[in-house]
Amino acid sequence: MAVLLRVLLFAALIFLSSSEVPSDSTKLKEVFQKGIDLAVQQVNSHTGLQNHFLFFKTVEQSSIESGFGVIYIYQHFYLKPTKCSRGTENADPKTCAFRNDRPLIDCAICYKTHAWEIEKDPKPYVHCVHKPALTEEMKKGRVEHCQKGVYGSGTATLLTSIGKP
Known about the structure:
The protein is α+β, with helices and mostly antiparallel strands.
């Protein structure tokens, strides 16, 4: 009886601890989302665009933990135009249907986080361009920028540990 009571107590503690405190993987997903939101905000603030853009698909993403709550993030993803006009508030794919007659925007971003928040120093690097206009030279420039010392942890380079989502 005492063993059963201990097992039940242990199971209840595990359930409570897992339901109250977000796991590191949950927090990392939230940080990835913050990076996507940063790029979406920058793209949608561009005066040359007529349509509102939303996140469409992750191509690749990676993270390196360098200790003391610091994580370096790299993300590569696509944004897709919607039928809503630029500046639409609280847009999502349900209220703003994706358009299939316009090119995707290809984005690569890298940034440093501390305590699950994007740091302002070094300034997050956001590079988004219409996919048809993206050149190999631009892709190379993205990689070089994100591999510079300001986004590297000093050990492994950020882009050498790229993992699929």
